[in-house]
Design goal:
Length: 188
Amino acid sequence: MKIISGCAANIELETVNDLSVRPTLGRTRKALFDHLGDFTGLRVLDLFAGSGALGLEAASRGAASVVMFEIDERHAKLIERNIAKVKRTGCEAKIELFRRDALTAPQGLPPQGFDLVFADPPYEKSAEFCRKLYRDAGFLEVIRNARVVWEIPDTPGAVGNFLELELPEEGQFRKFGVTLFYLGVWKK
């Protein structure tokens, strides 16, 4: 898996060789990132970083800062190596990795918040995590008015679980490549 565009284009990212991480496919990332537009100066939050591919792609494309959360120590070590590879290309983004549960996100985060949030949690808990985070006042404070990009599991019934959630009216489901995402702005 490679960084697609920007200062770290074509850098090969490390991934684990099992299904504990499902990195977003290259052509899906390209379509999604092209849709999202200019990343220059954005503050980006990657809640369930996995390999770090989404956050590092944003950094490569000009984001000012990227904060990633990964609770699995094996994945966190891999993300650190991927961050080092991206930084060696001259990427100027401030990149931070928190080795803790994304559901604790508000603790220690910059008070100015974020412009863009990526979330691709474990499929079996994706809708539950989305519900919890959307109801968490502390979390909502740091992402107020941010664009949220939530990857929808490709498991049977997953879309229905998300349709039942009380999500912001300013949201939509969009497919990029073979992957479905919920795109919304959380203003609650």
